[in-house]
Design goal:
globular; 19 strands; alpha+beta; 6-stranded antiparallel beta sheet
C-alpha cells in the first residue's frame, strides 16, 4: 500500500513538473499561432489573386480588380461577403515605392477605401466618412509608422502602411437592382496608378488550404513577418514565429509535437467564434468584438476574423452582428424550422443597414447559397418589403416561402445557418451596443 501511495505521489509530482515546464511553451505556441494565422490568411488570398492573374496572362501585383457583380453563392474568394456593395481590390507591394489611388467624388453614394496591412489590420479607411468629395491619395510603406489620415473632409495626401505588403479593398454601394449600372460607373472612377519604379516581379504563389498544418503556417507567414517591423515579436522566436521559411523543421521534436497538438484545437476554437459570441449574449446576437479590424484587437479576435470575416471594417465604419441561435438558445437550422425577426424602424446608421443569411461550413466560414429568389440579404433599400404601421420590418427565414407570401422572406439553407447584420457609419448607440436587435424567434409549424 505504501508503495502504491508513493508511486501515485511520484506520478503527481512528475505530471505537475511537466505541466510547469510546458506552461510557458504552450502559451508561446498559442500566441504564435494566433499571430501567424491572419498573416497566413493574407498570403492565401493574395496567392489566389496572383494565380488568377497568371492564368489570365497579367501580373496581379498592384493591380486593381473591379468586381462588377454583387456577391452571390459562387463568390467564395473571401468569407462572409456582403450583397450590398461592389468590391474592388488590389494586393499592394509597396516595398519598391508608393502607388497612387484616384478616388472619385461620390457624395451621394456610400463607399469606403480600406487598406489593410499584412496582419489584416486596417491602416486607414477613407471615403464617405470624409465627405465623399474624392481626391488622389498616395499609399506608401511607412517603415513601421501607423497609418494616418489627412484632415477631415479631404482624401488627398499620403497614407502610410506599416507593412510592405497590403490589401486594398473598396466597397461601392448599389442602391437597388436599377442602380447597378450607375454603381459600376462610380466604381470605375477608382483608378490605381503604379509608377514603373514601384513595380517588382510577382512573388511565387500556390493554392493554400484555409486551415494549414504548422509547417505550412510558418512557411507562408514567416517571410512577411520577417520583412514587417510591425509584426515581429522576438519573444516568440523559440516557436519559429518570424523565422526562416523552414523554421518548423528546425524546431526541436518536442516543440514540433506541441505545435501539432495545439494548432487543431486553436482552429476548432476559432471556428466556433461566432456561435460562442451568440451564446454569450442574452439575445443571441454577437456584436463586433473590441478593436475589430484594427491593431488594437486581441490576437484571438484578429485570428477569428481572419477565418470568419476577413476584411472586416473598424467599428466606427461598420458594425457587424451575427446570430447562430434563436431566442430559445437553439441553433438556427433551416432543416429544423422557420424563424422570424422584427427589425425596428429606427436603426441608428448614417449610411445604410442590411441583414444577410449564410450557410455555416464545417471549417467556420460563411457563404451565400442558391435560393429561388436569388435573395441573400435585405435592408433599408430593398424594394417591395412590407413594413408595419410603425415602420418596423418583420422578416421570415425558412427553406420554403411562408403562407403570407414571399415579400419579407429571406430563404434559408437546409442546414445550419447564420445571420449577419451590418450597419454602415453606425451612430453611437449602435457602436456602444445600447441599441440592439431583438432575439430571432422560432416559428411553430
Amino acid at each position: 500500500m505504501r508503495r502504491l501511495v508513493l508511486g501515485i505521489a511520484a506520478l503527481i509530482v512528475l505530471v505537475g513538473g511537466l505541466w510547469l515546464a510546458l506552461r510557458e511553451p504552450v502559451a508561446q505556441t498559442t500566441t504564435a499561432a494566433l499571430k501567424a494565422y491572419p498573416v497566413y490568411s493574407f498570403v492565401r488570398l493574395r496567392n489566389e489573386t496572383l494565380l488568377r492573374g497568371a492564368h489570365e496572362g497579367v501580373s496581379a501585383s498592384n493591380l486593381l480588380v473591379h468586381r462588377t457583380q454583387l456577391a452571390g453563392p459562387r463568390d467564395r474568394w473571401v468569407t462572409t461577403p456582403n450583397n450590398d456593395t461592389l468590391y474592388s481590390f488590389a494586393f499592394l507591394d509597396l516595398a519598391a515605392g508608393p502607388v497612387m489611388l484616384n478616388v472619385p467624388a461620390l457624395p451621394g453614394r456610400y463607399h469606403s477605401v480600406a487598406v489593410m496591412d499584412a496582419g489584416t489590420n486596417n491602416s486607414f479607411v477613407a471615403g464617405t466618412r470624409d465627405g465623399g468629395e474624392g481626391g488622389a491619395m498616395t499609399i506608401r510603406f511607412g517603415d513601421g509608422e501607423a497609418g494616418r489620415r489627412p484632415p477631415p473632409g479631404t482624401i488627398g495626401g499620403t497614407y502610410r502602411v506599416p507593412t510592405p505588403q497590403a490589401w486594398l479593398l473598396i466597397r461601392t454601394l448599389v442602391d437597388g437592382p436599377d442602380d447597378l449600372a450607375a454603381a459600376r460607373a462610380a466604381q470605375a472612377g477608382f483608378v490605381l496608378t503604379v509608377p514603373d519604379s514601384s513595380r517588382r516581379p510577382d512573388r511565387p504563389a500556390r493554392v493554400l488550404p484555409v486551415l494549414p498544418d504548422p509547417a505550412m503556417l510558418l512557411r507562408n507567414a514567416n517571410p512577411l513577418i520577417a520583412e514587417s517591423p510591425h509584426l515581429r515579436d522576438g519573444s516568440l522566436a523559440a516557436t519559429g514565429y518570424g523565422g526562416r521559411e523552414e523554421a518548423f523543421a528546425e524546431l526541436p521534436a518536442w516543440r514540433q509535437w506541441l505545435w501539432r497538438l495545439l494548432l487543431p484545437r486553436i482552429f476548432a476554437a476559432l471556428k466556433t467564434g461566432i456561435a460562442e459570441g451568440s451564446r454569450a449574449s442574452n439575445d443571441g446576437w454577437s456584436k463586433s468584438p473590441s478593436g475589430i479590424g484594427t491593431a488594437q484587437a486581441s490576437d484571438r479576435v484578429r485570428a477569428a476574423v481572419a477565418l470568419g470575416g476577413l476584411g472586416a471594417l473598424p467599428v466606427d465604419e461598420a458594425v457587424y452582428w451575427s446570430a447562430t441561435l434563436d431566442g430559445d438558445r437553439a441553433e438556427l437550422d433551416g432543416a429544423k424550422g422557420s424563424y422570424r425577426l422584427t427589425i425596428p424602424a429606427d436603426v441608428p446608421a448614417a449610411a445604410f443597414w442590411s441583414l444577410s443569411i449564410y450557410e455555416r461550413l464545417p471549417d467556420g466560414r460563411l457563404f451565400f447559397v442558391d435560393n429561388p429568389l436569388d435573395r441573400y440579404a435585405v435592408g433599408d433599400r430593398t424594394p417591395g418589403l412590407r413594413r408595419s404601421p410603425d415602420g418596423s420590418l418583420t422578416l421570415t427565414f425558412a427553406v420554403t416561402a411562408p403562407a403570407d407570401g414571399a415579400a419579407n422572406w429571406l430563404p434559408a439553407p437546409r442546414g445550419p445557418f447564420a445571420l449577419t447584420f451590418r450597419a454602415y457609419l453606425p451612430k453611437p448607440p449602435l457602436q456602444s451596443g445600447r441599441w440592439r436587435l431583438p432575439p430571432v424567434e422560432n416559428v411553430p409549424e
